[in-house]
Structures are given as C-alpha cells and as structure tokens.
User: Fold these one by one.
Assistant:
Number 1:
Amino acid sequence: MIYSVYVVARDNTRIAIDVYLPVLETTQKVPTVLNMTRYHRSEETQRNQPESSVILAEAQSWNAHGYAVVVVDARGTGASFGTRTAELTRAEIADYGDVLSWIAAQPWSTGRVGAYGVSYGGDTAELLTTLSHPALKAVAPLYSDFDSYDDLLLPGGVLNTWFGETWFGLTNALDEVPGWAEQLSAAAGVSLEQFRATMMPRVNPVDGKDGIALREAAILEHQNNIDSMKLLHKMPFKDDIDGDVTLAVMPYAFAAEIEASNVPMLVLAGWQDAGTTAGTFSRLEGFSNHQEVIIGAWSHGGGFATDPFLEPSANAEYAEQLLWQVAFFDRFVRGFEEPQSGLKTLKYYTNGESKWHQHTPWKPITKLEHFYLQSNQTLTLEPPTQAGTNTYQVNTTIGTGSNSRWNTQSGGGAIIYPSQHELDQHRLCFTSAPLEQNWRVTGFARVQLALSSNTPDGAIYAYLEDVAPDGTVRLITEGQLRLIHRAVQPVPAPTALPRTPRSFARADAQAMNMNETSSVLFDLIPTSVLFKKGHCIRIAFAGHDQDHFQLYAEQQVIKLHHNASNPCYLELPVELT
C-alpha cells in the first residue's frame, strides 16, 4: 500500500511525505525506516513507469523485510511548502522530528524508527539524532558529509567551483526556480519537455483532489529559496556568517547533541568519494556513539567499484548494502539491542590488494614512515644531506578530468581519471626507488613542505601515486591547501581529529610573504592501498586543478626548499601486520 499526505509541522508548514506499507494483518504493527531528501521524495514518472523508479524499488525491498517506509520532501523542496534560507537548517531538522512523532502515532507503527539516506539524506539522518526523539532508535548515514567545508565544498580552503555550480544548478532546477530547467535542458541538448520527461521529472503531488493545486502552491513558495552558490562565494572562510546563515550546519558542529542521543550508527563510505572518508575518520575518532563503519572502493552512493588497480565496473557489493542496513536495523529498530557507547568497528577494503580488513577497536596499528623529497626529484627514506631547491611554474591548464572523485558527488558516476603519466609531465614529481617489500598504507598521508611562492595567495595540490614496473601510473589519493590557510591552529574536537588541525577562519588567514620560505603541512584524503614490492611511490605537486577548483593566483611560481635541518617529506601511515 502506498499513499501520500502532508504532515503539518509545528509552525504550520505542510511537509509532503510518501508512505509505503507492507502487507499487514488487521492489528499488525511494524517498524519504520525514514528517508529525508531534498531531491524529490518521488516523481510523476513513478506512477506511470513504476519499473523505472529506484525509490519505489528500494521501498518495496524494505517492505519485503517487514518495514514501513516513509520518504519526506525537505522544507522548501518537492511538494513541501516553505522557503529554504539555507541547507540543513535547524528548522528543517525539526520538521523531521514532527514526522517522527506522526509516524509513532500511526496505527500500523510500533513507534520504533530508523533513519537512513545517501549523501544529503545521510546528513539529515545523522542530524536527526540531535533531537533525541524517543522514536529514533538507529541511523545509517551513507556516503554523507561530516564536514562539507573540509571535505567537499572547500577542501583545504579551495573553492570547489565545479561541484558548487553543478549541485546548486541541479537543486534550483529540482525546486523549479524559473530558468534553471531551461538552462540544463539546453546544456544537455534536449527539449524542455524531454528533459522533464526523462531527466528531471516533476515531483509527485500528495494524494487527493487538491494535490496538484497544493503542489503548485508549494512550488511558488520555492521561488524565494536562497541562491546558495552566491552565498558560498560570499563565505570563503569557515567561520563566515551571512545574516543567520552559517556553514556550521554539518554533524561535526553538533557533537554534544549527537553523542548525548546515544543513537547507534551504521556508516558506509567510499575511499574515492570526494573527501568524505576524512569525515568518517573524524566521526570515529571524535564521537562516542556506537559506530559500525564500512569503507569500500566505491563511488558516491556505492554504485561503482573504484579500485584504481582494477577496471572500473559496477559494484558487486551494491545489492548487499541494503541487506547490511536491514541487518543493522533488525538489531536496533525491530529488535531491542542496546547500543554500546564507545564501541567502534571498522571494516575496509584495501586498493591494490583486493582484500577486506576489520578492526575492533576501529583503529589500525600503523607506523609513520617518512619519504624525504630530494632536490633530484627522488623520494628516499633518508633526509637530505645537502641544501637544494626545486622550482615549479604552476600550470593552470591541467586538471583531473570529468570523472574524478569530485564529479562522482553529482550523480554517483564511475571514477575514471585521465592518464596520470601525461599529467605528471606538467607537475613537480618525486619518485621512490622500487620498493623492497609490500607496504599497506591505511589512513591519512601528509605532506610537510618548506615552500615559497611569488604570489601572496595560491594553492598547492599533492597527488599520491603508484608507479608500476611497466611504467603505469595510478592515482591513489590527493589533497590540497590554499596557502593562506597554512597556519596550524588548535581546533576543538571532533572536526580536527585525526586531521592536521586548522581553523580556516578569516582571522587566521595569512598572506604568503613572497619569496620567503614558509612551513606548509597538509593532509591527503584518507586511503587504504597496498604498494607492492617492485612498485614505486610518487608524490606529484601542482598548483591548480582547472576542472574543479578556483584559481587564486596567476603566474604563480612555487619553490620547495630542502635541507637536513628542515626537510620536505611525505608521511605515510604504514600498517604493522
């Protein structure tokens, strides 16, 4: 049974929901899973093309396991009323608390609910714990951002213009802000009618004779939604505030409330999914909640396998992921298992090894190994004995292509990088001798540099690569830093754990003293990889990625300075097995 209604929030805003019920006996009550989205709870095509609806198929799978499913249009989106003043506002999260209360009061409900979702929906699930609602028994944040500033929108303080423009354009079109659907259909080379029919159908109205009229009235209210991309350009620093709008809306900012809820979490993440695994480790390190974490070589949403040592393919574990969620909710939502505060397990796949590992407690035991940069562009385990300098004229015409870890965040596509061998001809590279043994690296790699620049602002990018004996170069992970953010500052947990702590605050920004050497320390996005015997490790540096990020300096020249007392190095967390 499927039906759609409005739940009236505490401020009288009408929130559209779909309810999917399994076949029930007359007096049977069932647990519920809740999915809260700003991407349409369902669309018109679901009614006339049900076989093509991913949402319907997912709900039916949950129904088959004995769960009711409730899917919600976020305030100011879909068929819900209201206007969006920002993303993930406290008002929006409070709406979901009102929906929880509505679910608990239904005759078919046991009053026990688990919340889950992918990406934005994963954030809403995690933030729902801040309400400490008695009906909420477990959450599954899937491929979500713990800290969207650090891990997606401005990683290293560098504005991800590609994602911002793409995502905010898509959401404006979904919200039916005038002109956006026309722009996207023209860019796709299809008519507006075809675009609406196949690529971005309209949201479903709620049931009843007034459903369509109510949908149109709700969409009129969406026309006042904030232009988030313009806002993002106005807020380049993490502590910037524009009116009532702040960037501190993500789970990291609500540590006390989330921990106080004691709600257990099942977390799925992908090593190549933007920078989201950095947030996964920050949550593991910083939150006391019961956490069961699985990290695979997966794209955003888990649809594609992304081990760089294997050919890109559909993710064989994708179908299993729902079963993992069902098993988790069976314990805490259908069943009455109590979470164990502080219990944290980590299961992860190692790229290049094609093998899974599991740790309880969660933290792999590692030794920090330093590969030192030498002025002859090699990496060695011994620090330099003589002073030297490497000069790099930043090439502003290179990037990482249109199928990178950043692109998968919009649509969950496969991750396929362009030739790293060719790109490395335009980067400053340092390469080790062939390894004499296998090294499994898991966690945050870091780069420590003594760096000077001829410009007061700019960026530094680092790419960790595996170089095979046949010369094949594979990108393992990457990281970047806007140079004005180089100051290492004490930052409250959990956002800084286990990262290099920096505030990205406006007051802590420091222009480069041109041609004066500065200490620059920054993280690479966490990974797990097996560097095999006979392969070489390479760290490649650039100053721009034209395919994704904002350029902060024209004609930038970067110099790396090496000497015995102040060496530059690559730090790798090597597992001890």
Number 2:
Amino acid sequence: MAKKLKNIPAKAHPAHYMMHKYWGRKPHNVVSEYIKNYTKEGDTVLDPFMGSGVTVIESAKLYRYAVGIDLNPLSIFITKNTLSKIDINKFDKEFHLILERNLEKFSELYITNCPSCNSSSRMLNSVYEGNTMLKVKGSCNNCGVFRKDTDDNDLKLINKSEKLFKKALKDNEIIFPQDEILQYVKRSNKTHIDQLFTARALLILSNLRKDILSTQNKIVKEVLMMCFSSMLPNVSKMIPGDLETVNGKSGWQISKLWAPKIHTEKNIFESFISRYKRVRKGKLETNFLIKSDQYKLYKKSSEFLKNIESNSIDYIFTDPPYGESIAYLGLSMFFNSWLDSSVNYDKEIIYDPFRNKKYQDYSLRLDNVFKELYRVLKKGKHLSFTFHNRDLKIWQSVIDAVNNAGFEMQNIVYQEQAVASGTQGINFKNTFKGDFVYNFVKSESNRVFQNKNIKNPTQAIEKKIDNIFAVNDSITIDKLYEILIPYIVRKNIYSNENGDPINIENILAKKYEYGPDAKEKKIYKWKIKKA
C-alpha cells in the first residue's frame, strides 16, 4: 500500500550524475524513494520527460523495467551513456591514445614563459576582456603555478593559433558547429555556436572530436564523446573570468548562450583529462550499480505514445517543462550541435514567444501528453510529477491538463533540493530552493473534474495570505508558496474574476515587503510592512 511521502532529505548527486551537465536534475534518492513507494520489483516505470534520466537510472538500479522518453537528443545521449556497461581498460587505452596524438600536434599552442625563470611552461588558463587576452595562469616545472600579464610571446601564440585554424578551415581539415543560436537563449552579441569559442579552441576541439568518432568500439566511442561534450562549457567563452586569480568563476552561470565581457580560455587538454577522470569515476559506479538492462529510451514527443500499450505502466514519475523557466532544447543546442544531433524544435513544449509558442500551444501539448499518460497507466496506479513556477497561468496549464485527463489528486509535497543550482546561487533573493511533488492516481472509474466556484479568487488568495502572516512575522518565499500553492491548486483559482492570471507578488506587495533577514542577510523573507 503506497503511503504519502514527506519532504525527504535530499542527498548530493553521486559521481554518475556528475558526468555531464543538465538542467533541473532531481535528487536521485528522492526519486528512488518514490519509485520504491509506488512500485515493486519487475514493475514498469515511465518518465515521459526524461531529462538527464534520473527516473530511468534509479529504476534500473531497483530492478524495475524503465521507459524513458524525451524530445531532446542530449537527454538520450546522457541517459544511454550513464546506463551502458563499459570495459574500463579499453576506455582508458583509447582515451590516452587520442590524448597523446593531439598533444603531439597542438601542445605547443599552450606554451607560456615563466615570469620568474623564463622557462617554457604549460598554460593552464587565461582571462580575456572581450577579444583581448589580459592575464595568463601557468605551471612551471621549476617554480610551480604562476600568474602574469600577457606578454608578446602569448600574443604571438594566439596569432599562430588563428593562422593554423584558418588554414585547417580552408583545407577542409576541421568541422565544427556554426548553428544559429535561438533568439530565446541568445544574449550579448553571440549569434552562432562557434562564436562561443576561440579559434585555438575550435581547432583543437575539431581534431579531438574527429579522433573520437574514428574509435571502433561503439560504447567506448560514445563514452569518450561524453567526456568531450561535458567539457565544452568549460573550454568556451561562457565561463566568467577572475582577473586576480586568473581562474574561471564557478562554471556556466545563467541559462543563456553568451560570453561575459570578462571570460576565460582554458587549456583544452587539462579540461579533457579532468572530464575523463570524472566520467571514469561515474562509469565505475554504474558498472556496479545498474542492476537491469531492461529499459527503453525513445527520442520523441510524449504527445503521442503509440509505442506503449494502454494500461501497461505501473508508475509514472516525471518533471514536465516549466513553461518559460528553462529552454531545454535552446540551451542543449550548445551540446547537440557538437554531437551532430537532429532536433525537432517544433514539437517542444515551452513558452517561447520568439517561436510563436505561447500559452495556448503550451497548454494544448500538455493536454495531449497527460491524456496519453492516463491511457497507458494501469487503473489504481499513480502519477507523480515535480513542478514550480511563479506564473500561475503556467501552473494552471499543467494542473488543468492533469485534471482534464481524468487523474485524481491525492496530495502535494514540498521537496527541498540537495544543492542550489547555478541560477539560484546568483539569484538567491528570488528563486525557489525546491519543488512541489504532485501525486495523482488513475481512479478505478473515470472521473469528471469539477471546477471550484469561487466568486472572487483574488480576494480568496489575499485572505489566505493574511492568515499565513497571522501566525508568521516573516516567511521565506519557499515556505510561503509551500502553504499557498496547494491551496490555489485545490481551489483551482489561478485567474481573477476577469480571467487574467493572478499575480501573487502584486497581492503581497500591498501589505508586505521583501528583504534580507535581520540575522542572516543572504536569506530573503516577506515581512509585514512597517506602519
């Protein structure tokens, strides 16, 4: 008998979930607990918005048969390579062959002179302002790690790299992506993928990729491509630079494809070695942890699931697209372009006005998905999904789609994350630190959803907020929404009496103010306005 799960302490991601970047990855132990709660060994678990594959991977660990579906080729790529069994010795051997071959050709492009003893040293990192390289960080065999201003030899090396790049391009010796960046994820003056890399990076990356793709062992080739793909952000211009330490600042920081004014250029070979070690550690884990090869992955939209029989699925756990919050396909083009993946952008479920994908399209596609999920799920079985968004119109589209399909809500659980995302780290004032987990059941008899009849929805929400502050002097946005959203969902009050989406922040601003906590400044809370 399934029980209601409370907020489960989220654990940090193990190594096999750290092999490749993906957005919105859910805590593996939380997903695992939900699978164990709603299924038994041998049951079939479906994730129609698979993402980085957490549901499928955790199901495979638990001897469940898993079905994963996603329109994004990157999702299939990451999940497949996480689940695969690999001969570590063959992987090691092929990696070192490719590394040495390319070091022999291009290591001279990362030589810089030590400022103390003037000996030839290995360049580790450099920091640019725009197109001008200002600082270099290197490692000298005699003096150790050093930092210095760019000198004439460093500038000559850049010129040499650019000449080699142009010659290789003219002679058709290199191939690299030149895809146009989608408007929704474009920022600054970068319009095409190749503009996010230096000429030196494009030259070396193209050669590494060509050598990896010539690998005979298919599984080894795919996992080597995972090493390659996962290092791409680190060797791009998208990493903000620190002129004092001559280091990059904590990775790809915002959900756009752009190059900050002060950015880094890392030594590709150093990054390739680092990613190889991380992927190797992850594969050692999955070689041991993955208990079942009974899974199927489909690169397609979940609007039409003709490949899945009616009443054949025992449990669904998923993470549907959050409207405009994360542009999965737009951001993934950074990787998919290098992986030479074919992408069907038309079928993406997203709010993106630049592609005429507005609320109506988002709602219609979600309706199609949840009707299919209702069809394939066995009667009496459960659907769980995680969701959060400040836009009540997006929230309503999701809940209406589930209700219209015929599912019956059982409960809502607020679930904290293990660690903050990069966006949360920057925008800690306003972002949620967790998700809501909605749990539904496919009832034994078809049910018709009844809309709650509340004459003044705005007034009802205002009253609920006042009741919350009657017992709280101040409250974080997470805690506030943890109380408020289940109320809104159950009452089905997303729009005001005129049919316009209710803006919770506008309601709050009438009587309450948002600011840093008196004791801990990095914690922001809503408080009653001072008279």
Number 3:
Amino acid sequence: MEELRREYAGLLAAHLEHPGEPHLFKAYALGKKCAERGITASEVINTHFSILESGEVSLPDEKVIDSQEFLLEATLATAVSNPSPVDADLPEKVLAALYNEAVLRFKELSKVKDQLRTSEDKYRALYDEAFAMLFSIDERGTIIICNNTTARTLGYEKNTLIGRPLSTILCAECLEKFSNRGVTSIAKNEEVECLILRQDGQEIRALVQVKAVFSEDGRSSHVDFTCRDITESRRAEEERVRLATAIEQAAEGIVITDRKGTIEYSNPAFARVCGYSRTEIIGQNLRVLKTDAHDAAFYQNMWQTILRGDTWTGRIINRTKDGALCEFETTISPIRDGLGGVTNFISVNRDVTHEVRLERQLRQAQKMEAIGTLAGGIAHDFNNILTAIIGYTEMAFQGTPPESLVRRDLDHVLKAGHRATELVRQILAFSRRSEQERQPVEVAPIVKEALKLLRASLPTTIDVYQHTVISDKGGVVLADPTQIHQVLMNLCTNAADAMRDQGGILEVSLVETIVNDHETEASPDLKEGRYLRLTVSDTGHGMDRQAMERIFDPFYTTKAPGKGTGMGLAVVHGIVKSHGGTITVASEPEKGTTFNVLLPEIEGEAVLEVEAAPKPAGGSARILFVDDEELLVELGQQVLEGLGYEVVGKSSSTEALETFRAQPDRFDLVITDMTMPRLTGRQLAQELMTIRPNIPIILCTGYSDLIDGKQAKEAGIREFVMKPYAAGKLAKAIYQVLEEK
C-alpha cells in the first residue's frame, strides 16, 4: 500500500504541474493496479485527501479541478476493476465527495459537475462495452441492470432483458449452483463454468464470476455477475484434445522434430515400430534410424525439399533398435510460425514392411511366371529343331567311317545338341512344365547321398555339418527323386562356391515342421499343414538386397564369366514350386547366406526304384508317323525304316485321320506330335480310337501345358515321349508298346 501511495503522489504532482490526458490515463492505470491489489475505491479517495492534507503534494486553488479529474479517473478504474460492498454506491459517493470538496475549495460548482458527469459517462461507456457480459440481480433473482455486451451476446434488446428472472439466461444446472447458496450467502468472488441460454435457445459456455454486494447496514443489496464467453476457446480446447488423442492412438507413426531433425515428440505407434520407448527416442536425432539402403542424394533431396517449406513424400527404410529393417511410407510436412517461417517438421509414417514384402513376392512370382511362359513357349519349336539336328546327325554319324574327320565333327555336333537338350530341360524345369514322374520319396537318404558325393569335391577349408530330425513314419514327400537330388546339389554347390576362397562352414538340416496361418500369409502359395524344411546355410561372402531380388532369375549370376550359367537357382525355384513348396533366401554381405526349402509332407512309405531292363532297339510293324514339321516326318521315316519298320509319314493331322479311316486295320501303331494345326495330337488320338479302340498310340511333344504323361495314359495313349529324342529312345518306346499289344 505504501508503494502505491508513493506512486499515486508522484503521478498527482506531475499532473498538477502539467495537466493533460497522459497523466489521466496513468491515473486510470494506477486505479486498476490498486484493484488488483485488493484496494477499494474508498481507500483510493481517502489516500488522495490524505496526501493533500499532509502537504506531500501542494494544491493551489486554481488546480482543484485538475486534482478532482485525477482522483475521479483513479477511483472509477478501481471501482470498475474490483467492485466491493463498500463501493456499492460509489458513483453517488464519488460525486458527493468531489462535489463537497469542490464547494469548499471554490464556487465553480457547475463546472465541477460537468467534469464529473463527463467522467461518469466514461464509466458508463466502459461498463456497457466491456468485453465481458456484466449484469446484476436483486434478492428476488431479477435482472436489474446489464451492459450492452450481455444483451447483444444473448440476442435480446437491453430493455427487454432487464426485469426478467435469472432463469431466463442461466441453465437449470447452473442456476441450482447459485440458488442453493442463496444470494445473501455469496460473500466473495467465485468463478464457475456455466451454460448461458441465448434467446434463440442456443447455449453459450461461459465462466461466471459472482459477487454479492451489501449495503452499509449489512443487508444484501444485489449480486453482480461477470461472464466471459469461452465457447470458442472450449471448442478449440476440445478439438485440441481430440486431435492429441487421435495422434496418440493413431496406427501411423507420427514424429515432430526441430529443423535439425531432433525428435521432440513421438506417438506410441512410431516408438513401438522402431523398438524404442518414447523416453529413449525423444531427444534423439532421426539419424539413429538411418540405414545404408539410401544414398546421400536421397537424403539431400529430402532435406532440400522440406527446408524450403515443401512437403516430401516417399518410402524410407529405417533400422529398428534391434537392428532389423523396416520400411515406412512417409510424408514430412513443415510447421510454420505466425510469420510463415519453418520451425519444426511433422512426419507421418505408415509401416509398409509387410506389404512391401508381399508386393515383392508377388512381383517375383509374376516375373517368374512370365519368364516361364516365355521359356515354355519357345521350347516346342526349339525341341523340334533339336530333334532334327540330333536325328539327322546320328544318321550321318552312323554312315561315316570311324577315321573320317567328318565323323569327329559330327560327334561335336551331337555333343552340342545334347547340351542344348539339357539346357531346354533346365528351362522347362524352371518353368515347372517338364514331365515329372512323382512318387513317395524319403528325403533324408537323398540328403545323405548328395552330401557324400559333395564332400569329395570340397576343399578341406570347408567344414560340412548335417542335422536331421525326422519322426519314424515321417520325412516322405511326393516328388521326383532325381529333381530333389538336383535341388540339394545346386544349393550346396552354390554355398561351397561362396566359401571356396576363404573357407567356412556348410550346414544342411532337414526337419519336420508345421506351417501355420502366419507363414501362409507371408508365402501365399503355401497351404497349412506338415512340411519338410530343408535348410542350406553357409558362412560365405553373402549377397546384397539387389542380388537377392534377382537370385532366382534365369541366366542371372554373380559368378565370374565362364564360371556359371545362372540357371542353377532358377531350376531349383521351378522344381520346388512344381512340388507345391516354397524357397526363401536370407543373406547379408559378409554374413553368409541361408536357403530354406519347404516341401509338403505326405503319409505313406517311400517307393524303391527298380532299374528297368533294357529294351531291344528294332522290330517289324506298320507305323503311321504324324508331325506338322515335314523335316521331322522325313527324319522319322528314315530312322524307323532303318530299324526295320514300315512307315507312312504325314505332315497333316487331318490327312493322317483320313488315311487311317480308309484303312484302319493297316497300321499296328500310330506316332503323333502333340501341337499341330486343326487337330492336336490328343484330338487325333481320340478320333483314331473312336474308329479303332485298340490302336496303340505314342504321343510326342517338345512342350505342352495341355497334357502330360499321366493325362495321356488316362486318355488311352500308350506312351508319352518328350522331344528331342534320339533314335534309341523312340525305338524303346515302340518296342514296349508293341510288346504290350
């Protein structure tokens, strides 16, 4: 109080020396400060006269009006800012006090009144246009006064609102809060959140401050209400809470960083995916998640984009706390201040690791399917060509003297033809369209045999370990044993090549496992059930991500020129897929490679292979030979006639049908190609058997996805021969069919 008294005296003295509006504004500000300190308007008046009576400030008669103006501004500011019971009738008291003082000081009462009236008008204007809604009620709860703000906010005319009960504008719940206490019991300011009703029925949320005013005799005079409309602020707060809750509970990872990438906020989803707690991740720089999957240009472009205020969208591969890689679909946007400057960045991250893995598997499957279709499509024509090359070369070879240089050259041609035949066979195995004779096979002995063969060719710097866990009646799959052996040999050979320079460990394991929903989701080609898991792992140089994405592509190899064809793993992939299984690879540079092969297990006992007895290579019979390639028809006639058979050759399936229809008993055997115009070999066979049901038929094909050996025999066809074939192979098939007849 003493400090405010000194401040008041100083301002009053300055105003008396040089009267003016600046000092009156300071007086008004000082009055508000007094109200904030709990000083009443009456105390301000007493202080004013105390200062003058003590002589602290000199007051000449000509300065009386200036003194009263200063006092009036300070008093009114105090009363408006902090009304009190003592100041209930302040305007009248102020007027009376100032009036009496002015009469005593000099006779210019009318002038003083004009000044006071002007100041009172200022007070009224401040009251009416105050930001808050101000109104008062009497003991009966009737509104006796209100400012313009109240009437305007609630949609009333001011004169129609005065005289209405408090329940007109106060909701029942809030009215109960005050009514239970009684207006006479409210002795101090209170601030309560209430709903105030507009005339149109809408509700306004407000903070209501209530102050009971008492007369000098202690009786309740009235109750003042000060209401601040907080509807928009509450709505904004609720929106903020909803937004914060949504961010906290969002499935996407959300991060806020400063301009340098230091994390200032992380929602639970981001922390969970990255493997950190929120305490651990906040304060870290985003570099803690960085991997080598992206080059420097990638990050440079991203930072240049967001620093200039643009939004960046893309996919980022991050590293989790435990070292695993996860891929995010990320959008980074700038956060700006009021002046438009970028202060922070917000990053929204959706974990797409699983989706990307499935997309990659789908793309790989589609790519392999497309390559397989292409490979199979050319196999028929290529095998026809090889059949002609090998067949005519064999005939020329047999008719050439042993000492002839031409015979040596023909021998080279035959070797090249057989190599080409093997390559086509690999392509068909990759495309999963080669003819396979499957039977129940026990895999463990094949693994043992393959490793036994492999050990002899491996350097001593490579250690080989085998681990097999198979139940008594398990370990059997429906497969071609030769192809299973080929799968294992290819995988082990690749592993050995990866360790040939520096040595290492080659480990092969075979165990039974059950594939569940989780694994079928990761590999859609799999079905739930029991499988054999064949694992081949090495500690060699490993592969990077780009190499792994192409590892099963035909003709792709990481070996030096001349060291590999790139077909080994492509064939393995085709064989495994054709057996209803799947193959996966995991590798990192300098950390080795692991291949996992899953093959569906079956119940039953393995079939022991029996070596077939050799068949004679010739005979006598009348044969109808059909192929749409005239070159192959001519070759077939020469080969078969050389073996002692009587041959009728046709390059048209329809002509062959007419020839047979004319003399159905003329022929002992029909040999036909599968893929021909008008009538395919299968359709021709059906027509022939309609005419003569017991006619033996051999079906030949270079490639067909419409029929295989099993389907051919089910259709009544006796034998199924894949091109390219040598004369001996065809002769054996003919002999077997005629012997059965």
Number 4:
Amino acid sequence: MIPALRRLLHYTRPYLLYLILTVLCSLIGVSLSLTVPVYIGQAVDLAVPAAETGSIDLSAILSTVLRLACVVGISTLFQWLQGLCINRLAFGTVKDLRTDLESKLQKMPVSYIDSNARGDLIARVIPDIEILSDGLLQGFAQLFTGVVTIVGTLFFMLSVNIKIAVLVVVMTPLSLLAASQITRASHNAFVWQSKLRGELSGLTEELVGNIGVVKAFAYEDRAEERFEEISRKLGTAGQRATFFASLSNPTTRFVNGLIYAAVGTFGALGAVGAMPWIGVMTVGDLASFLFYANQYTKPFNEISGVLAELQNAVSCAQRVFEVLDATAPDEHAAQTLPAEGRGEITFENVSFSYNRNKPLIRNFSMHAKPGQRIAIVGPTGCGKTTVINLLLRFYEIQDGRITLDGISTADLKRDDLRRQFGMVLQETWIFTGTVAENIAYSRPDATREEIEKAAREAHAHSFIKRLPNGYDTVISDTSGLSQGQKQLLCIARIMLTDPSVLILDEATSSIDLRTEQRIQRGFEKLMQGRTSFIIAHRLSTIRSADLILVMKDGNILEQGTHAQLMRRGGFYAELYRAQTA
C-alpha cells in the first residue's frame, strides 16, 4: 500500500504549484475557521450577564457577530479555492497516469496483450483510473484540511486550557488505533474486489464481443453460470470490503464521542469551580472548547469516512502499476533502415515456442531474396502465422536470428522495422470513421486521388460509390458491411502504403472466387519488385510463387516451386491433390 501511495505522489510533481496553493489555502481557510469558536465564546460571555442583571450589550454582541460573519465568509472563499486547486491537482495527476498507462500498452508486444484478458486491461485503463481519481481527490482534501485542522485546533485548545487539551490528546490514540486495525482488515478485501472486477470485465468483453459464437453453440446458460459465479465472488468481496470500511466511521465516532463527553464533563466542573486544579474557565471558554474538541475529532471521522474510497483507490493504483511495471521490449536500437529497403530477409536457425514446455518452431532457416514471392503452406497449427509474427516482432524469438537487408531485426526499432511491411490479415479490422479514413489509416496525408486509386486496384471502388456518401460514408465494424467488403477495404489500405515487403495472410479468404481472381491481378501488380510472403490454404492461389515452403510441426518439410514439389510427390503433392480431387 505504501509503495503504491508513494508512486502516486510522484505523479503530482508537475502540479507542485497547485499543491503549494492547496496548502496555503488550507492554512488560511482552516485558521480562519478555527477563530469562529473564539467569537462564539465571546458572544456567550457577553450574553451570560443578562441572567443576573436582566440587560444585554446588544451592540457588543452585534459587533462580534459581524466579525464572525466576515471570518466565515473569507474562510469559505479560501476553502473553495482549496477545492479548486485539489481538483486541478488530482485530475491532472490522473490524466498523466492514464496517458502513461495507454502509452505503455502501445509499447508492449502483442504477446503481452494476448496473455492478458483484454477486458481486464480495459478495466485498468478506464474504471480503475476513475476509482483512483475519486479516491485521490478525496484523499488530498482530507489530508490537507485534516492535518491543518488537527494542528490548529490543538494550538487553540492549549491556549484556552492546557490540562483539558492534554486529556483530549491522551484519548486521541484510541481513535487512531481503531481506524488502523480496520484499515488493515479492509485493504485485502478491496484488493480482492479489484481483481474480481477485472475478471468480470474480461469475461463480459469476451462474451459480448463473440455473442454470435456464444449463441451459435448454445452457450448462453453456461455463460450465465460463469458470469454469476464471478459476480457472486465479487458480491462477497464487496460485502466484506464494505463491512470493514463501514466499521471505521462509527467506531471512530464512538471514541470521539467519549472524548467530547469527557471534555464537556471536566470543562463544566471547571467552569462552576468544582475542580479548582483544572483552572478558571468561563462559560464562553467552555463553549469554545467544546467546539474545538468537536473540530479536533472531526478530521478523524472524515478520514475514516472516506477510508473505503482511499483503500479502493490504492488497490486500483496497484493494478495500474502492475501494467506500468511490466517489462517492455528494449527500444534502444542503434541501427536504422534506409527509407526504401531491398526486402532481403533471412531466418537463421530460429527457434520459438509460445509455451516453453511445448516447442513449436525449431532451427528454422530460410532465405528470401529481394522481390521474391515466398508461399508458406501446411496444416493448421504448423507455425505459418507464427513465422510472420516473429518477422514483425509481435513475439520475440528465443534462439537464432532474423535479418532484414542484412541487419538483425532485434537491433531495429519496431516502428522502423514495421514501416517496411504491409500486411493483409485473414481477420479484418474496421474502425469508426469514413471510408477514406479507413483506407488511409497508415497514410493520413494521402490525397483523395491516391485513396481512390488504391480502392480501384483492390476492386473496392464500385461498392464504395454505392454507399450513401461514397468515400465520406462513416462506417464501423458493426455498420453492416459484409466480411468480403471489409476485406476489400483492408486490401486497399495495404495497396496505399506501398511497402517494400508484402505479407498476405489468407488475404482473400472472405472473398468469392470471381472477386478473388480480379484481386489477384491487383496483387500481381502490387507484388512486382517486392518481397512477398503469402500464407494460403487454397494451394491453387500460390502456384506462381517463386518458392513454396511446406511446413509441418514447426519445421520446413519441403521447399521448391510448385512444379518441383509436384514432381517430388511428397507432402505438398498430397495436399494439392486432396484439394483438387
């Protein structure tokens, strides 16, 4: 808890001015508010003689009340300014924290995103940060106001009556002890609650994002059972956290009530002279002291009242810092690539596995010459897409070396490396925006003529013109476009990038055969002079490849041209005949 709180305070450094202003406003506002009991005591002492003489000095009381009103007004103004500064401090700090978290996620490799539930990551970026914001805001408010109030009240009480002030101070640890014990018990409950909240967000994102699959396999009942199970655990954790947190406020209020009663009792006895050792106290002094005793214990009550928010905020901060502390890839690359690479790629004894106990690719070697077309085929799970993931450094290899134009990809920055590649995946991705913005995703500065040219080459221009606003039609992943139309937009997107290396991972899998034949002609033009990697299940689409790599169980089983592999009559020939039988 303490390390997380210390790191949170580190994020407040850019807002040091607001921190200083908060302290100053707190000092002035609370100091002025602490003079209010003094004026109340004076007014009481002015009114007491009326019980004996039957007359009252109204002018003196009115003057005291006016001074009291001025003090209250000025104190309120500074307390408002304090709240404004705290808001700037807290929300600025949270903004920086959220920005760092998003930046860290952008720098993390795909392997990190794949190994964590996406809903849980979303929960850390949005709801956890919001909870942290609320807790941080209340925490700063109670910290500054509470400390100044306690110190200032103690000073005024000592100035009124030292002995009763010492009695209040001696009894204060009882309140602190009760609050600390409850804090320790509630912290673990809030950490558990935050973890379960992330699990529930992850499950919800998974189920809602794949609702079609859930319904197709009649998984609704089991999905509800999984959701209810985590919800039940979250409810238990929430009840436990709320129970311990709710104990804090009434417990400290009870202890503070005892303190207030002791002050009232001993102060009254001192005022009537029953306990001379207490000292001389007027009725006004007693009234002032009771106000101070109440104000002295009030910060403890307020801090304990927001204890639940603070505990929840710290547990959320720990979850956020877990992401920030994740090991990011080394981006201190020393070498750079020329703007226009040649596209020569070499795999040298590369080994990789997603799970160390289950080897996938072992001693994989391959050389792709500039402008060569490399087709990678094989059964599902043989490592075809994994080769592409390693080439783009979505995952880091465990042994061996991959070079691009003679430079190890491990010595290149990822941005510099990936600018050399253009990739069309089997899965399409369309974001909310116009058609033109979707096509120009990697080249926002592209002209409309360049965008339309890329769309024509991808055979997407005709259906785009039929949309309500053509290239200015706003689309999204749920806007009603067919899977084939989305794929055409993705192909147009890659044609606009003009990369030195082209990767086609089942790029035409969602397109009918007639459209595929037309797009293949576009690909033929696009692949001219570029090194191309083609992953395909339909072997008829890669017959013209310069080199076909036949993979099985992470190894290259055969390699050669289509004609060479067919004459050899091996595994490739069996696959081809099975598809064309």
